Amino acid sequence: MPNTAFLAPDLPGLKAAAAILRGGGLVAMPTETVYGLAADARNDRAVAAIFDAKGRPRFNPLIVHLAELSQVEALATLTPLAWRLAQAFWPGPLTLVLALRDDSLLSPLVTAGLSSVAIRLPAADIARRLLTEFGGPVAAPSANPSGRISPVTPAHVLAGLAGRIDAVIDGGPCAVGLESTIVDATGDAPRLLRAGGLPAEALEAALGRPLLPALHGTVTAPGQLASHYAPRGRVHLNVTAPDPGDIWVGFGRCPGAELTLSDSGDLTEAAARLFHALHEADALAGPGGRIAFAPVPEIGLGRAINDRLRRAAAPRG
Predict the structure, then answer these.
(1) What is the CATH number of the domain that holds 165?
(2) pTM of this prediction?
(3) Which residue range is the domain that position 12 belongs to?
């Protein structure tokens, strides 16, 4: 593969990116959540190239990104529950797992052979313009080596995948900074598969009912592996008194912290800063170093932040 091209987010850049996708190539595209590694979701070789570039396990399904709600029914069945959620939160940082249509034409690698498919309509303008220019479904997991810290800037993408993908679109830093929330909407009972950039409380308020938890022991959507988002250093959580040599990442008032998710204790700021802070702490700690995170409350976006931190701290295979 040639050197990774750096594309501007203007019309010529987006046309070049769409041409790469039509040719079976890989393009890192900015969304409001994180940068996604995009490929034509109908092209087996292109989708396989995503797994190869990332070193991603083939049993871990991908999210399909679309420009318009009208495109969804060609791929999947929208239940009444799914319609309610789609109309309330799309475009945005919500992924719905839906029953896959037999005639979807999606590569079976996208769904890891499952009878369901994860679909999202991103809100970021650049992503929507690229999807419209391309005109079809795009598979796009996060644009980083599998299991490592998710990328929220073009530099993060290039640090992990330069020379392994065709292009990256320079959209600057991602606004939300956390991957999408994933909800199983295949039936009439909403099940939270992954906490993310849309707080579960907002979903529950819109539905007027609680979300059920994910079933243990099954991978039905991305982001469910126990160890994920991992830096080279070891991550320790809920640290209020760091050990000597720790790179301490604070939240709220943490005198002496080298980095912070939010000095003011703002969860929206912390979500947007999370992967930036992980990348920065990783560089400071180095391989085998220790990264300590101050406690983050388990409410609102804090649930998604803590989910990512627990996976970053999990034992690695």
Answers:
(1) 3.90.870.10
(2) 0.89
(3) 5-213
